[in-house]
Fold this sequence. Notes:
Shape: elongated
Distance between the termini: 86 Å
Number of strands: 0
Radius of gyration: 24 Å
Low-confidence stretches: none
Mean pLDDT: 80
Structural class: mainly alpha
Strand content: under 5%
Helix content: over 70%
Amino acid sequence: MSEFNRRKQSFSIPNLPLYLIIAYVIGYVIQLTTPELYQFLQFNPYEIFQGQIWRVVTWILVPPESLGIFTIIMLFLYYSLGRELEHTWGSERFTKYIFSGIIFTVIAAVVYNVQYERSRKGLKKYFSRLNKLERFYNGQKKKR
């Protein structure tokens, strides 16, 4: 087992919570200075399927809320909890935890979007048939 541990390559980003906070600050700066660019950073599965692949990565720059006192407190909380987790678990495990969360968020959003679009088309077809039935029934009612 120790030979396996020596051979495997470590994947860790030390001080990752600080980098995440910096990414949020960059997102706030973009949001305040160029809102039209900010729209291109947001995660939108429809636009990703249209070819805007960069959205899979750039949504990490999108900050949680508008900048205010509670957001600043939340960012300090993110940083302190992230540093403690990184210190407790180790940098490698914490990095894998964060990146697996990012990857599974992207997968869940894409699956949800596909299911949503499928159900939306089904509902559209259902209401179209219901509308035709209603028009048919109203036409029969007027003939009597």
